[in-house]
Amino acid sequence: MQIGSGDGESRSRRSRPQAAGSSVRDRLGPSAGLSLGALQQFFATAPVPCPYIPGRAERKLVVELAGRGAPIFYDELSRAGFRRSHRFAYRPACRLCSACVPVRIAVESFADTRSTRRVRNLNREFSGRLVPPRASLAQFRLFAAYQHSRHRDSDMALMSYADFRSMVEDTTVRTAIADFRSPDGSLVAVSLIDRLDDGLSAVYSFYDPTRERQSLGTWSILWLVEESRRLGLPYVYLGYWIAESPKMAYKARFPALEQLVDGDWVPFAGAEPA
Length: 274
Description:
Elements: E1 17-19, H1 24-28, H2 36-39, E2 42-45, E3 48-49, E4 57-58, E5 60-64, H3 70-79, E6 83-85, E7 88-92, E8 101-106, H4 114-122, E9 127-131, H5 137-150, H6 161-169, E10 175-181, E11 187-196, E12 199-207, H7 216-231, E13 235-241, H8 246-249, E14 257-261, E15 264-267
C-alpha cells in the first residue's frame, strides 16, 4: 500500500502501516471529533525519512475508507486534517514535528489579488469541467511528462498506466476529475478531486510542463474555487502547508486561507498572501 501525499509533491519511500492500538486517541487529540468506533480502525506507519524537511522522520495515521459509510466518514476526516490516497485516509503523526499544517480556502471570503488576476488572464483561453474518475491514456501521458519534468527521482515517476489508473479509479468516496483543455481540445491540466459535504478537496494535480510560466497549478485551484462557489460549497481543501518546503509553501499565496489549529479552523497566520 502506498500512502501518497495527495498534493502534487513526490514521494521517495513508502510507509508501512502498523496497528496503532489505544494510542490513536492521544495522537488525534480530543478535538478531532471522531467516534470511538472510527478510532479503532486506525493504523500508524513506521517512521521514514521526511520528504519535505531533511533530517526529520515522517509517520502517519492511516485508516481504510470502506463500506457504504465511507463518504460520510471521509467528510468528517477531512475536517480533522486528513487527506486521501486510493482507499485510505491519512494524517501526519510525527512525534517531534508539527510542520504539516492543514489548509483550505474559504470560498465566500475569497477575493482576487493582483497575482491571481494575472494567473487568470494568462489562462483565460482554457476551459475546465468535472468528469467521472476514469483514467485515459491522454491523462497518463500528461502525468508522465509532468513527473519526469518535476519529480524525476520519485516513485511516482516510475508509475505504469495500471498504477495511474488505480490512483484515479480506486476510490470509495465521491471522486471526480477536473479536466482542463485549450481551445483546440488539447489536455493541458488535470486535477483529481474529491467532493465533500462542505467543499472540494484537491487530491492530486498535474499539468503540461511546457507551459510552466502559465502557473497552471495555481490556475486549477482558482478554477476549483469558482466551481465550489457555483456548487454552493464553502471550502476548497488544499492539503498541507509546510513553511520549510518550497513545494508546499506556495499555498500561503492564496487569499482567504484557513489553517487547522488544535482542532479549529482559523484564519491563516503562517504568511501573508501575495
